Amino acid sequence: MTTQPLVEPLPSQAAAEDDYFATNPQPAALQQHLSLARAFVARHAVEGRKVALVTSGGTTVPLENQTVRYIDNFSAGTRGATSAEYFLEAGYAVIFLHRQFSLLPYSRHYSHNTRSFLDFMREDESGRVVVDQEHQNEMQAVLRQYTEAKKQNTLLILTFVSITDYLWELREVAKVMQPLGPRALFYLAAAVSDFFVPRHRMVEHKIQSAEEFNQGLRYDQIPHAHRPAARVEGRSLVIDLEPVPKFLKQLVDGWAPQAMIVSFKLETDPSMLVNKAKYALGRYAHHLVIGNLLTTRKWEVVFVSPDGVKWVRVPRGKRTKSVSGIESLIGQASGEIDELDSATHRFVGEPAVEIESLIIPSIAEMHEKLMANAESGKQ
Ligand code: PMT
Asked: Nearest Cα to 75, choosing from 245, 189, 167, 186?
């Protein structure tokens, strides 16, 4: 006698992927982005250059099809924009896939929210707008790097807004990068939503703030499965989010099987960071997970790779300032106590070091080894 299983088996990852892309439409700009990416990759492949795809910024979760309201996260894109500059400095061509209006390489130096770019300028005696003397050297250096990247055509900037845009772009650009083989590198610094509203459960128009404007619809009288995911019931906005399938496995095994893949793991609880990063490495079997804590991410990260666990820290006295960061928490996730009070040990005039200037050369070194292994495996 055959018995029916009580619970439907979980769809495989591949089926979840097919379903996601079949039911959540591609972004309008995708084809245009892909032709830019194809030309960019072809050019750098011919020149034998390594190409890094850097993802950056947060993904939105729209609640309506004609989107007025959405869920977002904290990411400003500092990690991605800063890292892109150091990848360029290390000789990579960079595809910078970022959340629209988040920070961009080079211009990020003058577009952060504590200081407007106008603060760096003044009018001279003749009324011409010039850069203030005290910022000349720094701005000249940034401008030169930016101009060089433009001249060499080593930086391609692509945008996304929603989680669905991001996943479409990531999958399709990864496929475009396949001919690069092991010379491709993925650096997944974007803060990707884990939950979303699927298209078939999204309302078309702006959610009304009061139930009386729902054209007589009483959602509490409709079966749960047929209610929109985001709706007003009584006086409350109710949102049922569904899990976004994890796409890292598909990236590693299917979309970019020869590339080096670096993912990030963000936590807020220091006691979880290393274990969660190890778990991600075990589960997705890629090359490197970079763990970081929300409060200390500008000064310390942990590299978790098949070679083990390695902490990367900006030395005390060379740490960049941060409004939201908590410097005293450095060392907590590794069980070390940062016994010196940083404020009293900051050396006046010592230039600040961005942690990405330590992260990227380390990754580039790992990437060289992987490429050499791939090359020797071929012989
Ligand atoms: O932009 P900043 O303000 O400078 O902040 C930088 C940062 C903290 C956002 C960055 O350093 C960082 O940690 N980014 C990754 C945050 C994140 O998405 O972590 P996660 O634990 O949710 O995901 C881990 C990995 O799984 C990510 O590489 C992500 O690409 C991947 N993922 C996530 C969700 C999903 N549905 N599928 C995935 O494959």
From this structure: 189
